[in-house]
Amino acid sequence: MVRVGFIAFICAACIATGTVADRSGKTKQFQTLDRLNGRSPSVSLSREHVYIPGVPGEVPRDVEYRGPYLDLAKRAANRHRIPVALFLRLINQESRWNPKALSPKGAIGLSQLMPDTARLLNVNPRIPSQNLEGGARYLAMQYKRFRSWRLALAAYNAGPEAVVKYGGVPPYKETQNYVKVISKR
Q: Is residue 64 annotated as a catalytic residue, yes or no?
């Protein structure tokens, strides 16, 4: 118990002081602790890698859409603290900005909400503003759960159960490509 508390204290101190990890994800402090301890590594720190170029709120160059739903999508992303470029790419990937898009599995609208998900979120997926609100809220829920944009995207595409089952991005080609395209990784 003391060891866990000490490690938590060190983690908090590193975060508070902005200590940077090396390429292996280890800070100098943890490398020293591991060496002194003579055991296997205690903690590995890694940063989330989602590359979203440009100015916050700017439309990414690879999203060519400039129609009437762009501002609605930006506002929904901002309201739910989602990187705007990430959300715009998600909409682009999901529906190519077609508010009437319907997938073979029954997903509806711009953000391709499944009917059960739309009911859970209390939105009408056929109304573009509500669809975008629901999509942003659902993505934010996944981020809150998994604390990673990559995993939130995987959960959005394959379902949160699949992310839990595989302990990360599921080994489905569609989902892996989806995460790669949207996160630009």
A: no
What is the per-residue pLDDT across 15-70, written as a single tens digit (0 to 9) for each? 554 545 554 455 565 555 555 555 544 444 444 444 444 444 555 565 666 789 99
Tokens, residue 123: 């939105």
pLDDT for the residue numbered 28: 60
pLDDT per residue as tens digits for the range 109-119:
999 999 999 99
Q: 45-55 pLDDT, tens per residue?
A: 444 444 444 44
pTM score, whole prediction: 0.68
Point out the catalytic residue in the list 48, 94, 161, 174: 94
**Beta bridge partner(s), residue 102:** 108
